[in-house]
Amino acid sequence: MIELLSLDELEHDDVADLVWGTDWARCAKRLFSTVSAGLGEPVALSSQSVREVLTCSGWWESRREFDQYDLPADGVKVQVVRAIVRRWLAANLDGGQQVRPLLFAGQVLRRFSDSNSVFGRWVRLLSSTELAEFRSEVAVLLARLDVDWQQRNRSLSVVPGSLLSRARFGSLALTSSVVDATIGAASLSGSGFVAGSTLLSFASSPSLSSQLDELGVAAVLHGLRTGCPPARIVMWDLVSGSGVAQTVDNDFVSLWCQQICEATRRISEIQSFFEPRLHGGPHCQKCPNFEYCPNADRDEYAW
Ligand code: SF4
After folding, report:
1. Per CATH, which fold does 2-263 belong to?
2. Which of 11, 76, 188, 211 could join 122 via S-S bond, C-beta 3.0 to 4.6 A?
3. What pLDDT band is residue 294 in, cutting at 50, 70 and 90?
4. Distances (CA, A) of 233 to 52, 84, 174, 179
């Protein structure tokens, strides 16, 4: 079930409790360990790469080669914003004296700039005017978040980021970097775990229900860490102050487990020198191999 909600309503979940067997995580781990046995070389799968493999194996393959050489600058900018927001959540967990958002954004950006990380290199490429503009932009988002989420920390626990962002099963690694906060926790009942967590992901563009799929692998990872999947996933647009939420049910989790397994099988085919399965479509326009691929859908470029 997909719904619209405010961040403060995260605490008022009236969705019926979903109980997961205490062996759910053990069964899921066994499943991924079994399917990873077909892989020759190590592979990391996120929600995005699972979608790419299942849409067109060639898209996944060319994207992987492309990513090794270049990280799109707009992608780094989004990651820098999220990193600052997570630090903001962590710094204000106890609800004590707050550093002002503009000052806080400046402090974090300075720390990034002094580091040799991808973030540091990206920040150092900005001119002083661009850096000042970006700092103000982020400060507005932080202030907006505080207004939109006033109930934060009042009753449920809030942990910045995810409880598990990577899990390894032989040559298969499941990864997710899209969770910005984990709210609440599961509880134990006589028959199993009662799902109780919400995974929250921040976006800086209007949140669409289709974006909730970005949290598929994150929901599985959360379950592997805590014993059961979260109760709900939320995408929140920091700019517009609106979001979408979805209840995590058995169908959602089973579908993601199946997709991870199928993606792993298709990658093991490619590693065994089978030709990638090419399926053209609108997604071709996002594929690094668009220019050279014989199966690319070029209808949009018919002029
Ligand atoms: S251009 Fe289209 S068909 Fe070709 S590899 Fe990329 S996504 Fe697949």
Report:
1. Lambda Exonuclease; Chain A (3.90.320)
2. 76
3. confident
4. 21, 21, 18, 9
Q: What residue type is assigned to position 193 of the chain?
A: F
Task: List phi, psi (to 5°) of 190.
Answer: -60, -35
Give the CA radius of gyration of the chain: 21
- Which stretches does DSSP call E strand in the chain? 2-4, 19-20, 43-45, 158-160, 166-169, 172-175, 181-183, 187-189, 192-194, 198-203, 232-237, 242-247
The token pair that represents 46 in the structure block:
């996120």
- 193 has pLDDT over 70: yes
d(CA 53, CA 111): 37
Distances (CA, A) of 146 to 7, 54, 56, 132, 199: 10, 39, 41, 21, 18
Q: How many Å lie between the centroid of ligand 1 and the Cα of residue 287?
A: 6
How far is residue 276's CA from residue 127's CA, in Å, rounded to a whole number? 43
Confidence band, pLDDT 50/70/90 cuts, at residue 69: very low
Atom 3 in ligand 1: residue holding the nearest Cα: 280
Mutate to test the pocket of ligand 1, among 52, 283, 284, 299 (most ligand atoms within 8 A of CB): 284
Cα torsion at 290, 296, 301, 303 (round to 10°)? 120
Residue 222: per-residue pLDDT: 97
Cα–ligand 1 centroid distance for 178 (angstroms): 25
**So where are the chain's domains?**
2-263
